[in-house]
Amino acid sequence: MKKTFTTIDVLAIVEELRESIIGFRVNQVYDIDHKTYMIKLQKPDQKVVLLLESAARIHTTEYEWPKSPAPSWFSMKLRKFLRNKRLENVKQLGVDRIVDLTFGSGEAEHHLIVELYDRGNIILTDGNYNILHVLRPRKEGEDTKIITNEIYPIENARKAREAPTFEELEQAYNNAKDNTGLKKIFNPLLDCGGSVLEHELLSVGFPSGAKKVKNVEINIKDIHEALTKAQSNVREERKELEKKGYIVKKLVKRMKEDGSSEDTFLYEEFHPRLYNQHKELPVEQFPSFNRACDEYFSKLEANELDKKVVQKEREALKKLENVRKDHEKRLQELKGKQEEDMRKGQLIELNQGLVDGALLVVRSAIANQIDWKHIQELLDEAQARNDPIACAIRALKLKQNSITLWLSDPYDCDENDMLLDSDEEREHGTESEKMRPMAVDINLDLSALANARRYYNMKRQAAKKEQKTIDASYKAIKSAEKKTQQTLKEVNTIANINKARKVHWFEKFLWFVSSDNYLVIGGRDSQQNEQVVKRHLKLKDIYVHADLHGASSVVIKNPSGNTVPPRTLHEAGIMALCYSRAWDEKVVTSAWWVWGQQVSKTAPAGEYLTTGAFMVRGKKNYLPPSHLVYGFGFLFRLEESSIARHEGERKARVLDGPDNEFSSAISAALEKLTANSDDITDDNEVIN
């Protein structure tokens, strides 16, 4: 997965940034982590966020990146020197992966240098490139120091090279080892990077991943032609090409909660043009390289998490499977123990005489206080004489007060025949398999039948334990399944970086869209009242106010200059009244409106207008009294694909019925008030 800019990427992004953000001023600086910073830029009614990541990228973003709770020391330094300064220039130093951002001019000029190679760096300098602050102080050789109060060595930036000659290419090829990729052989001779080189090699017939093969000659002339084009025409091609961005995607399989898999695409690479090697791959096109970078890096963290999700899903499902297998294994062991104890009890009963005889012999030897070693010697001698009782005794476990007997079913075939039973019988658990000869421990304190009873009791205890294990296993597996489902939910809930909604200029004011689709704005306080009138009230707009303390200055935006419908005037009047003292005191009164050209900030001679106060000249058109009823609504933003289905929903409608009667009533009342000279004033008046 590609995570850093190449030289060509830097060239492309610098061109786009020059066209889009030069002239903006720095509003604020934030840090996302120790190497990633956001610079908020703004113009009147326009804002842009520039994202810088040391050693990786630089582009504008439309996404809401999480900011650090408290600004770092480097953010504070950038704020100190760059806030309110104008971005004057963006340039690439040589053909290196270094971007130089120039803020301010003259004595106030500063440079912010972003290094996108190796471990990267961000350096703040003055207009003479004297380093003021550096994110990562370092030394380059003996003479170059990137530290405070040193001069940043812009002359060390890599310069553009001429295209390699035929002889240089031939020498590089001959010096390379066999099985070395052509891209790896020739890339050090160029400035354009591996992607452009591979693109040009494909264009002259070399397959992707072509290598040097022993004793195989290649046409260096074709390579020279391709590399000359790649090196010399990079800038010209970029200017001629349509400026777009491309993201190459990769198909992977992901596990779903039900255990099935689904195909999903992960971002793999981003490029400023579509190269030959990517034309057969899934590719997403963007209107600009900057947009492609923004989309790619905003999803990069999610893509990384997606890869971890696949692994965590497998681990969670494997853990659940292991729990099931473990419980199945325990149940099998308990069932096997029951069968074994049952067989041992049955074999003791079938060989009761033999067991009692063995018990009598051993007990007698112990009762006569014969040494345990001598007992073993006597046993070995008896076995040598093929004594049936001695041959049945396999081990003396006198310390445990027991002996081990080898018992078989005396009514079944002999032991040799048993050993020749087929594997198929063993698999299907035949009756003969159940009664195979086996070693049985016999307690010396118990008789044969008592020992058989002991094994039957052990079998019953194992059966009870099996049932308890089954019950516990059911609960444990259910709990494991629940935890697995929760884990799958958690790993699938990835914290994506959400795309920031564009905040419109009018959202800082009180605002609504009237029933006739007019934008109506009002000030929240005297400062905003001042802004609403001075910045946004045009000659053909409508100014609405009420003669009450605290009433908001309301403006109906009327860009078309047409007559504003009575319903919109009435709604704007309600807004002016509700944001006044009338709301608290429950006073029903009337608002009034005038044209924007009647409102000014010019006070009469000898008078002074305070903040939020204006002079209204000419007639004031009073609106009918209205109830203090105010509501709030939700405004939903639609996807572009959904706009067509909702077209016309906000279109003003004139219907026969209550709406039409209400509109007619308002119109009639307005006409009546306009005709009544008592309700219209021609005096100049200062409003607050």
Q: Any overview of this molecule?
A:
GO terms for molecular function: ribosomal large subunit binding; tRNA binding. Belongs to the NEMF family. There is one protein chain. Mean pLDDT is 83; it is low at 415-433 and 673-682. With 688 residues, the chain is an alpha+beta fold. The strands form 7 sheets. The chain has a 6-stranded antiparallel beta sheet with strand order 18-19-21-20-22-25, sandwiched between helices. It folds into 4 domains: 7-156, ibrinogen binding protein from staphylococcus aureus fold; 166-240; 328-464, no CATH class; 505-687, no CATH class. The chain contains 19 helices and 26 strands. A hairpin with a 5-residue loop joins strand 7 and strand 8 (121-126).
Give the tags.
688 residues, ibrinogen binding protein from staphylococcus aureus fold, six-stranded antiparallel β-sheet, 40% helix, flat
User: Quick one: overall form?
Assistant: flat
Question: What radius of gyration results from the CA coordinates?
Answer: 45 Å
Strand order of the largest sheet: 18-19-21-20-22-25
Derived structural class: alpha+beta
Helix content: 25-40%
Per DSSP E runs of 2 or more residues, the count of β-strands stands at 26
Beta-sheet strand percentage? Answer: 15-25%
Q: Summarize the main sheet.
A: 6 strands, antiparallel
* Number of discrete domains: 4
Intertermini distance: 62 Å
What is the averaged pLDDT score? 83
Identify low-pLDDT runs: 415-433, 673-682
Total DSSP helices: 19
